Amino acid sequence: MATSRRTRALRRGLLKSFLIPARVLPHGLMRGSIQHSLRLAKGTSAARRVHSNLKLAADNLGLDEAQLRALPAAIRAHTARQIADGVRLSRQDAGEWVDAIVQEGPGFERLSETLAANPGTIILGGHMGNWEILAIYLVRRGVRGVVVGRARGDQDWLTKMRAQHGVETLPQDASARETLRVLRSGRILGLLSDLEARQLDGEFVSFLGHPALTMTAPAAIARAANAPLLPVRCVFDTQSDRYQVHVDPPLWSRTDLDPKASTTDLLERMNQVYESWIKANPEQWAWHQRRWWTKPGSFDAIPNPAFRREKRARDI
């Protein structure tokens, strides 16, 4: 426990010391430097996890051998862009930069149509492309709401950066009452639901051909609020050299099923959306994350309050 805290504190200090000089570097130079550093970091645990995750999902990506071999380098290039763009967002004039670097993509008209019919909509995002730019872009387009994020001391800079651009963050362990209050007030709720979250209630659902612990919160909130999940992603388009915001058709809970079956059905359709995103832009997904870390039968996901109580008991 103490070691983990020291590691997070060290990481937080290193990040802050990096941000100060990075803010004044030319954007292209900063991205190139980061990409070079990532090439030198091939032996890290994150790089090994990218390799193992790609190996696990390879048969379900629809890529040939040459494309699979080229994918790790493409992932590093996107990661470098993502980090450099994240630093760029910390500058005071970042809002105008977002306006210039982002354009409407396929299905964008669904955003205004869905929000007009359902003001309290759940924006279903993912760790695809650049989700921080997406949140800022939507706020600058007049979309009102909050994003749900994990509250951690080593990420306080991220919460402050969002707030600087008018993006409100709701802690991941917020009560159901708080999340429903957001939706019932006519604001959107932004969720990133494509990764494993062991501290949240979840069930195993197929993800790129393998069972993956999937948080049930999106389905539970959607059912309780009678709200749609609107899949939205912000991906980089190399042809236009811009980010594009894509909006897929909304997903609704099925009212003809019992709550448990309805939850499973919606989670399956949600993961199918994520799979389609990854297949379209495999280099822009967070392959370094532990998506298939927990195996069926090895862990019983439990709600946040119980998780915290159990964790405190272990630490005593």
Structural features:
316 residues; alpha/beta; 7-stranded mixed beta sheet; two-stranded antiparallel ribbon; 12 helices; globular
Overall pLDDT score: 86
Strand order of the largest sheet: 1-9-8-2-5-3-4
N-C termini distance: 11 Å
Question: Count the strands?
Answer: 9
Instruction: From the alpha carbons, calculate the radius of gyration and give it in angstroms.
Output: 19 Å
H/E element order: HHHHHEHEHEHEHEEEHEEHH
Task: Enumerate the spans where pLDDT stays under 50 for 5 or more consecutive residues.
Answer: 306-311
**What is the count of structural domains?**
1
Portion in helices: 40-55%
**Number of helical segments with 4 or more residues:** 12
What can you see in these coordinates?
With 316 residues, this protein is α/β, with parallel strands linked by helices. It has one domain (2-315). 51% of the residues lie in helices and 15% in strands. It has 12 helices and 9 strands. It has helices spanning 2-22, 27-40, 45-57, 65-88, 94-101, 109-117, 131-140, 156-164, 176-184, 217-225, 259-280, 304-315; strands at 102-104, 122-125, 145-149, 168-171, 188-192, 202-207, 210-215, 229-237, 242-247. The strands form 2 sheets. The chain has a 7-stranded mixed beta sheet with strand order 1-9-8-2-5-3-4, sandwiched between helices. The protein has a two-stranded antiparallel sheet with strand order 6-7. Helix 2 (27-40) crosses helix 4 and helix 10 (217-225) crosses helix 11. It is globular. The termini are close together. Residues 306-311 have low confidence and may be disordered.
